[in-house]
Amino acid sequence: GEERETRASVGELLVGVFDGHGKHGEDCAQIARGTFVETLREEVHGTEGRRPARHINNGGLDDAYARTFDKVNAIVCKTMGEEASFSGSTAITALFGEDGKVRIGNVGDSRCVVGIDLDGSSSSSSSNPSSATGNRHTKSWVVRDLTHDQTCFRADERKRMKVEAQSPMMFATIGMVLGETEQHEDFGDGEPGSDDEYCDDPPRVFMAGYRFPGCAFTRSIGDTVGKALGVSAIPEMSAFDLNEEPNARCIIVASDGVFEFMSSAETMAIAERFYDDGKADACERAAHAIVRTAYTRWQEQDERADDVTAVVAFFYPETLGTSTATITVNEALDEQLEKLLL
User: Fold this and answer.
1) Within 13 Å and on the Cβ side, how many CA atoms surround 319?
2) pLDDT tens per residue across span 157-201
3) Which end of the chain is more exposed for a tag (fewer CB within 10 A), N or C?
């Protein structure tokens, strides 16, 4: 928004990733992306004019932010009609507020990750050994997931879907549906980085007795057939307070294609290498490097490549002499990457 009152009540910056799936997934993702900001603004201020920011507390903002996902889902379903039956989009957004909080809303299996400098300085000046980070990838940053992938691996999500489903449904892998594997629901926990998460035949939700829709995610925008089986557009909300974690250095928001063959720590390690540059394009170059690395992993591990999208935000302390953080979305691949893809 142009008015400071708007920025104060809605937030200073909103970034997100909308990852379409299905035949009409790209259209669903574009509609969701294109309507999210205005829908959030309406949920916060109302449709009959903007209320002063002082009348909107953080609780009201949080509620409005959560409602926005469901409202955007309704817009996508209405706009797409039957074409949204088996198509949709995941959606993850991070709202950077003037109160120093980053509010994350998530439907689907995209992920938000934060990197925190252990000694409170730039990575180049750190004397901490790699082992101190809790992973073998980053030099001085500890890596923390701010979201939990919403997949059918999660027992809590399967339980919720069974309660909310309006039609008979079942959880199964493709092998189970084809009769190649015995039916069960012992899918593991699917925690990020676990062997379960990287299996070739993940659990999905199907209409009982049928081979559709086969959603591996448990929440999404669109997917009207899946909605009858408990797939939800209600987001899981989380928050990260920069006031409480002043040593935060980076937040990455990325599609599941990035994390298919890369852990959160591996992804953050790439960003860490670019952080110390402090240049205006540091985030852009980090995002492109993440995309290139993820795509290379797909080439090595699979016959195809999933959508690979990343947003990188760096936080620079004033003591480092950098006036503002930079943030860039890699909406278009650079010439070098296009040649690689071809």
Assistant:
1) 5
2) 999 999 999 999 999 999 999 988 888 888 876 555 555 555 678
3) C
Strand partners, 94: 15, 104
For residue 100, give the nearest of 5, 12, 2, 4 by alpha carbon: 12
The enclosing H or E element of 288 equals: helix 282-301
Instruction: Say which amino acid occupies 107.
Output: V
Q: How many CB atoms lie within 10 A of CB 110?
A: 29
Cα atoms found within 13 Å of the Cα of residue 249, Cβ hemisphere only: 29
Cα separation, 125 vs 238, whole angstroms: 31
Q: Give 65-114 as a DSSP string.
A: HHHHHHHHHHHHHHHHGGGGSS-EEEEEEEEE-TTSEEEEEEESS-EEEE
- pTM for the predicted model, two decimal places: 0.83
Q: Which amino acid is it at 333?
A: L
